[in-house]
């Protein structure tokens, strides 16, 4: 038998595994590296986040990724070259983190690598009948495994699609296993480039839980921060804080079929981008807005679409606890606009639940790999978009 298969088998039988989860999202800010110690599986999963780092992407790498990112037409050669290049780079970033932490690669059981999403196309978006939901992540797992000499799980989203999902959001699995609490209605709100939330009802019923994207989080805000401020983002919402919301423009932004579609649903910067904003400006005769007013309206757009989505699943006389994560939780203008519209809800961060909110998505992939190794027994019922499957493909280092 291949010694690597024996090794995988031994890892699967261990009472506790050390798994490095990787996530690099739609913001292209960097690679989140979360070293987790995980025991159990399914609803009995226990995660200790041992170490966490975000390895920033330099400007050249961001520019390289942007040449193929969320675009209908690209140079195919560039995509082909980036696939192994990013895999190898992510491998090197892991090794650098381990070195800084004083940990040997041989002490890690597996890597769980999300890769870099370059295109996301649910059917509702591409509208081409014969084609299924589709999504593409690059940074191939074989290169991560070869670079680190650690067995690597990757390409988590295809199995989800193969079983009728849109390939995202996958957060529901990790959130249910890590954060579900009997007797407490919880909303896990992640505000990355795209915002999403997981609904975890107090009765702990797995067939009721789901995660849905709500629309933009920071992705459009970042695009205009680059344009107006020449910075990667509007730090602490400083520019937005100086502006006034333009209601005609806001209404035009909110007019899109995505917002009326049932849950769970997904989207990406393929839809919510500068072109989307310019088109809404044209429709609402608001092309000459001051940068601050434009930014204030865009923040309100993210906040309102998050709030509207949450209101669709919650009931008036029940108590809900919202736990925030993702970079948007650091923007007080965004969080303020959300909290102001949900006065009866309590707000905190996932940090209170033991997982750093900046690390949460990277931890999710560690949990998904753990589930592929040691779990796979939880039924999420028959809801479209939450198939009861395990995810991730295995790459051996040699
Ligand atoms: N201090 C801050 N003020 C305002 N915004 C901030 C601040 N810190 C982080 N952000 C926002 O958070 C973003 C990064 O968030 P995060 O790393 O969660 O995104 P991501 O993982 O790429 O996205 P996704 O969840 O869509 O995959 C930044 O691009 C910025 O918009
Ligand atoms: C296709 C893709 O990469 N989607 C991401 C993105 O970032 C946030 C949101 O859009 C979410 O749907 C998803 O990631 C998280 C980790 C998820 O699958 O739950």
TrEMBL record:
SUPFAM superfamilies hit by this protein: Actin-like ATPase domain
UniProt KW Iron keyword: no
Biological pathway: Cell wall biogenesis; peptidoglycan recycling; Amino-sugar metabolism; 1,6-anhydro-N-acetylmuramate degradation
Show the catalytic activity. Answer: 1,6-anhydro-N-acetyl-beta-muramate + ATP + H2O = N-acetyl-D-muramate 6-phosphate + ADP + H(+)
One function term, GO molecular function aspect: ATP binding
Residues the record lists as binding ATP: 25-32
Q: What does this protein do?
A: Catalyzes the specific phosphorylation of 1,6-anhydro-N-acetylmuramic acid (anhMurNAc) with the simultaneous cleavage of the 1,6-anhydro ring, generating MurNAc-6-P. Is required for the utilization of anhMurNAc either imported from the medium or derived from its own cell wall murein, and thus plays a role in cell wall recycling.
Q: Which family does it belong to?
A: Belongs to the anhydro-N-acetylmuramic acid kinase family.
Q: What is this protein called?
A: Anhydro-N-acetylmuramic acid kinase
